[in-house]
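Much of our argument rests on the idea that a fold can be written as discrete symbols. In the encoding step, the backbone of a single protein was reduced to a row of integers, each denoting a local shape. We regard such an encoding as a compact summary of how the chain folds. The record that follows shows the chain in one-letter code together with its fold in token form:
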Amino acid sequence: MKNKETKILIFSVFIAGLCSIIYELLIATASSYFLGDSIKQFSITIGAYMAAMGVGSYLSRLISDENLLIKFIRFELLLGLIGGLSVPLLYAAFAYTNYFQTSSIALTICIGILIGLEIPFLSRLLEKYYSLKINISNVLSVDYFGALIATLVFPFLLLPALGTFKTSLFFGLINMSIAVILLWSFSEVISISKKKILWLHTLFVTLLLGGTFAISNTLLSEWSNNLYTDRIVYAKETPYQNIVMTKHKGDLRLFLNGNLQFSSSDEYRYHESLVHVPFNFAKSPRSVLILGGGDGLGLREVLKHESVVEIKLIDLDPEISRLGRENRNVLRVNQGSMNNDRVEVINSDAYKYLLNSQERFDVIIIDLPDPNNPSLARLYSREFYRLIKMHLSKDGVFVTQATSPFFATDAFWTIFSSVESAGFANVLPYHVNVPSFGEWGFVVGSDRDMNRDEWQLNVVTKFLDRDVFGNIWIFGKDIAYRDLEPSTIDRPRVLDLYLKGWTHWN
């Protein structure tokens, strides 16, 4: 019996360690999805979590040893309830309130305190089986091993398979297994009246978590419908981002982590400007590299140029490129560009691809999301643009989207400065108006001369022509050139300036 009891308590330690790290990762990941700046969100979550664990450990001394097992089961029920519902509650806070960050910190503190109580409680429950030295060794080693398993299964298994919403509920149920096993195994030492109450509480929390898991798709749909004004025609959470597509009277819109990527009503203004401006400066380019742009809209414009015989498109998320190839709504807009024989699609990180490739291209087009987190900010750094330069042919031209020069003026000119510092002989900024986004900026760079007065395109366009081309280089006084330091891998200045700019307007 003694051996059985110790094994059960050790198992409880393992599950406690597993669940505790999962909850922390879930809250930090959800916060990063909705607020951006993952370093800041993980730092806040980890700091609040560790401090709260310390508070919980301290408070454990105030709890007497009387009915210690019953108290521990109650804490596990509470932890399973709060931890399991943590992400659904954060989704609700984002959709229905203005207190997402406050909610995130409050949930982190509550979970941290309860987890801080766990280890001292389990150590005290194991006191009668082991000496203090062995007891502490057993508890901490098993707890840390559970944490290791959590950090491995979360990014590679749980997030791809379930997403944050369902993973939260799933691990709430896993957490409940501690209460169930302890109630079952130590039934003889718990009074009948207290046992009935604990079983009723356990049943209630289990049914609540299980029921919420069962209707999670409906809840996510309701959440999305509240967040997006138009009818949702597609929604999926991938290991990289939350993807939502909406449609209203023929206007198809793609959102990544809540940020609009394109509206089919005016995306041609953006993509024609992104693609045909560098092509205007290039000499009959034959090879093209596109970084990002897995929706195939920029690719559609590239394919208009008959001189191009080879196109490589690098996009991190396989689900985005799958939509570009298969989704009938996207196919209508990109005109089947992703299925063209001249195109090779590679699902990889843009930075990693450039590091491992020796190829050179006549035109490189960077159509990546805005630098709203550290992972993306490195793709707007001096080091990244130096990599771009290394992969350009002798007379090659590259262009990058550079966020809004109106809403994030300093971020725009920081991107310009970063491109300049990468060693290009000629760097030019330009901007156009895209109604869905407002003023939007680009930076084009090359070692060859780029004559802004020369118009030589002969492809069919809906927006860009000689007159528009002549005006895109003009910046008003309010968004005129600013002499700013470049953004680097070590100091991603563009991230802070981007968040500061958009936070002001939001």
User: Anything to note?
Assistant: The first strand starts at residue 231 and ends at 237.
